[in-house]
What we know:
Layout: H1 11-19, H2 27-36, E1 43-46, H3 53-64, E2 74-77, H4 81-94, E3 103-106, H5 112-120, E4 125-128, H6 130-138, E5 149-152, H7 155-160, H8 164-172, E6 179-184, H9 189-198, E7 203-206, E8 217-223, H10 229-239, E9 245-249, H11 252-264, E10 269-272, H12 278-289, E11 295-299, H13 300-303, E12 313-316, H14 324-330, E13 340-346, H15 351-361, E14 366-367, H16 373-390, H17 402-408, H18 414-433, H19 442-455, H20 461-465, E15 478-483, H21 493-504, E16 511-516, E17 521-526, H22 527-537, E18 541-542, E19 545-546, E20 549-551
Parallel strand pairs: 1-6, 1-7, 2-4, 2-5, 3-4, 5-6, 8-13, 8-14, 9-11, 9-12, 10-11, 12-13
Antiparallel strand pairs: 15-17, 15-20, 16-17, 18-19
Helix pairs in contact: 2-3, 3-4, 16-18, 21-22
Amino acid sequence: MITFSELGLDEKLVKATDALGYVNPTPIQEKSIPVLISGTKDMIGLAQTGTGKTAAFGLPLLHLVDEKKKHPQALVVCPTRELCMQIVTELENFKKFMTGMNIVAVYGGTSISMQIRDLKRGVQIVVATPGRLIDLIERKAIDLEQIKYVVLDEADEMLNMGFKDDIEFILQNTPKREATWLFSATMPAEIKRVSKKYMKDPFEVTVGKTNSASQNIDHQFFVVNSHHRYEALKRLIDFNPGIYGIIFTRTKLDAQNIAEKLTRDGYDIDALHGDLSQQQRDKVMGAFREKTLQLLVATDVAARGIDVKEITHVINFELPDDIEVYTHRSGRTGRAGSTGICMSIVMNKDVYKIRSIEKMVQVKFNKLELPSGKDVCRKQFFSVMEKLLNTDISHGDYTTYLPMLQEKFADVTKEEILTRMAALEFDRFLKYYENAEDLNVREQQRRDRREVSQSMSQPSGRQRIDSRRPVQYSDGDTTRLFVNLGTKDGFYKSSFLQFILDMSELKKEVLGKIDMKDMNSWVEVDKKYASQMIKSIDGKNYRGRRIRMNDANSR
Ligand code: AMP
């Protein structure tokens, strides 16, 4: 694997990537950096957020720009204030060892005079949203005369948001432009037209497939009746106790209502939508980044450009009208090589949309059943107990209180304490789910499975449900492995699947069927990889217990 120092970058930049802990360039960085540092080549990068595209253009920009000249030489244009700030934060990290380099972010919704002052301080790189940039040009507060490099980031989003004329204006008013780099997740005809008009023989880099969703994401969908949508959302959240996620709605009203309802039900959640002032938006985003908020409910426009690390789940309360938007939503999770889950709550009539998205992103979706009330309770129970066991008691002076505690609890048994603890933490779930109904649309589900199995030539409905691992091996090609972990360990199928794949560093394609029981599970794995899986899992510890994995037939 190639390293940053082999890409031809200035050594101060290589040092900065080291300091950031970047070990190897991502594919888009590896392909574009050596070409872009020539400074004269136009480029089109078909890549989404999460691929490392900011560094793919940011590092070459910093390499090319002259620190000694104190006027704007590079311009990065992007659709939103959030993205603007994120790009500047990343560039600041990269320029850590370039003391003479200055970068400024200019965006709407905040004082323009401060930004004008910043610009006068002698900056080399300007990161801007189109509207505010035009405003600054009209006030003659920024001079584009000396701009050599223009980057258009999330170009498709900018066109969606109606910035087409602004972008053309910017491109027409940068007469000394030597290179234009355009990044976009999708390639609508309008972008092709703009690139043809303003770019010369651009070098093209596609990361993954055009319009493709990240391969690190498990795409799941759940079919419910429309009046169960909110209930289904709540169930999905409750079934994933460690969730740190974004819920997408189509309307501001839905976003607001869901945030209010879930707040009343005791969840740490807030809404992000177009009716909020910039100050309110910043407050919500700040709380979400700090994880004071566990969940964010957002409309598509409001969530544009958000880059928050470690998001575990994206939930589509409803599918977007425009299926291309799905890629933007799901791309909020599974960033920079980590894994994520994108769950969509759909009605029967929307299943065809899922099929269209599957075709567009070329990834199979997993149709899953909503967990029952019992499933949720069990999951929550194990999560609470797990939290109890893992609580760090090494830092407090608990010995001071121990005699008092012992006295108070002298007549209470350990079992009773545990039961009381469980009741304290867990009662609300038991009560809430006591008479929980089955939310899955069953009749249609069967019909739909038939359709799916026909359209995808899969042998049976049951296999389709299990086919988050494509069933492609005959018995002769697979080995059945036994493992002493099961649902009692707090796993459900997809988290167990993720766990064994993470441990063994194998791809999910090597797996066949998984049978899970309370205490044990059986996993079918491509014969070629069975020993690798056993070697990486057998004997390891899981929550203080030794994992045993072996060939099921040899027991
Ligand atoms: P982006 O696609 O630019 O939004 O980047 C997504 C995330 O990946 C950012 O948080 C970056 O800090 C991180 N990142 C970018 N390049 C690398 C790399 N080569 N190694 C590790 N992380 C990276």
